[in-house]
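Saturday, quiet lab. Running sequence design on the structure tokens for the scaffold JK sent over.
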């Protein structure tokens, strides 16, 4: 059987009637029926989360939530589905799912307790609603389609609520059996199912990750991700002047950019597809010409003339500085700390050590919990623990970072000449990234100066030519 493309439709382009019409145009550009992995409509996931969090305090939460969802969906159904029978069937299916959700939320309201798994179960409905809506619209347009739910197909995870990892080996044994027809398949993204049959989310933006897993399991010809932006850029347009589009990235470069704050991809999207050498293609849904991908990500090595390809920023990482004489030398200290944090599902993003300090880079929303846990260990070698949240991590990505002469020097010089203090820096964490941490107040200035130095100076005109050509 010929290979299918797996398409991911993001929430940023699922907003209204116009966006659904764009999806219909996208379908016409594919010669083979694709697998479409869909996000929730824009804003729906946040509404579901807010409703769950306020459920115990506000009696009218359920009614307002369902009225909002029905308002959005019904207007699109009425506008885009002409056949009365299909329109009614779609509304009936949507109402059925809403009843299931209402019953679940009412149960939580009555017991006055929100279980850990509730967030995963409730938030998964946003993607289910999207799939149901698109199925009805496709039926009205004589496009044969079926919905395949991750829990039915066997997208198996490790069972961690909120931020699960996909068991690719287990998933690949089951998933292909659900995609044997020559039709368009619709798959709700963002979640999988544990071996205990519990819904588990794949982290914020996890539809990218689930789409990549389906692409791997189906040995897809490509993973096509449709967004409302022009792919990866040399810098975020909100922070730098004249950012240039990057036409090609390696898997490693894309993974590093996603990990260090570029919001275009979920950080784990690359993992499944690189195992089977499946290219990722980023398209802009607002372009009338769908032939050319904005950015292609694959295994081909392309070395930039000045090595660096993009600069990005992560504002979600803080520093937990553990100080004490010999703390970086004494065996077992870091092991005991990392074990404790692991047991409480707190990930250490990076570690930078010296003789008298261990610096842990941890997500800011977890750093206070990490501080309390380490304090309770009563490690005698620690004389002081400092939490730093008012910082930003700036990363410069490009293949060959550790081999090219002077790259780090240009980056550090660009920042220091602006009088910006660098609190921590790292070169060589991988061959594709150099990063530094600065005070949050200096973030924009540092980003602008680094981008100007690497991509905008007249001496670097060949860089802009390379990115576009």
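Result came back. Writing it out in full:
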């Amino acid at each position: 059987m010929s290979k299918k493309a797996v398409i991911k439709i993001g929430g940023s382009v699922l907003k209204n009637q116009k966006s659904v019409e764009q999806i219909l145009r996208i379908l016409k550009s594919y010669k083979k029926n694709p697998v479409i992995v869909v996000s929730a409509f824009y804003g729906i996931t946040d509404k579901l989360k807010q409703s769950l969090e306020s459920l115990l305090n506000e009696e009218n939460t359920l009614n307002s939530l369902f009225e909002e969802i029905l308002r959005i969906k019904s207007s699109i159904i009425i506008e885009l589905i002409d056949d009365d029978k299909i329109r009614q069937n779609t509304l009936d299916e949507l109402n059925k799912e809403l009843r299931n959700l209402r019953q679940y939320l009412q149960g939580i309201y009555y017991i006055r307790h929100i279980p850990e798994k509730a967030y995963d179960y409730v938030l998964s409905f946003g993607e289910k609603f999207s799939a149901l809506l698109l199925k009805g619209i496709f039926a009205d347009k004589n496009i044969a389609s079926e919905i395949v739910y991750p829990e039915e197909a066997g997208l198996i995870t490790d069972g961690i609520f909120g931020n699960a990892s996909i068991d690719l080996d287990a998933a690949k044994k089951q998933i292909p059996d659900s995609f044997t027809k020559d039709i368009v398949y619709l798959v709700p993204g963002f979640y999988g199912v544990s071996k205990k049959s519990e819904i588990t989310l794949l982290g914020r933006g996890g539809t990218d990750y689930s789409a990549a897993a389906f692409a791997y399991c189906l040995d897809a010809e490509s993973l096509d991700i449709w967004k409302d932006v022009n792919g990866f850029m040399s810098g975020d347009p909100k922070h730098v002047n004249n950012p240039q589009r990057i036409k090609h990235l390696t898997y490693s470069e894309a993974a590093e950019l996603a990990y260090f704050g570029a919001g275009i991809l979920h950080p784990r999207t690359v993992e499944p597809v690189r195992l089977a050498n499946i290219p990722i293609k980023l398209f802009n849904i607002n372009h009338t010409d769908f032939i050319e991908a904005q950015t292609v990500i694959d295994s081909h090595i392309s070395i930039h003339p000045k090595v660096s390809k993009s600069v990005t920023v992560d504002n979600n990482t803080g520093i937990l500085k553990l100080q004490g004489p010999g703390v970086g030398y004494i065996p077992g200290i870091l092991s005991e700390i990392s074990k404790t944090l692991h047991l409480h599902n707190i990930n250490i993003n990076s570690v930078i050590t010296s003789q008298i300090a261990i610096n842990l880079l941890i997500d800011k929303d977890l750093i206070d919990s990490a501080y309390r846990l380490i304090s309770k260990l009563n490690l005698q070698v620690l004389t002081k623990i400092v939490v730093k949240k008012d910082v930003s991590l700036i990363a410069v990505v490009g293949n060959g970072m550790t081999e090219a002469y002077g790259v780090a020097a240009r980056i550090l010089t660009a920042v220091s000449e602006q009088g910006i203090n660098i609190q921590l820096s790292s070169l060589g964490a991988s061959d594709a990234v150099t990063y530094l941490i600065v005070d949050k107040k200096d973030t924009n200035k540092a980003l602008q100066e680094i981008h100007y130095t690497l991509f905008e100076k007249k001496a670097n005109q060949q860089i802009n030519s390379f990115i576009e050509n």
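Notes for JK: Residues 84-111 form the longest helix (28 residues). The chain has two domains: 17-205, 311-468. Ask whether to fix the surface positions before the next round.
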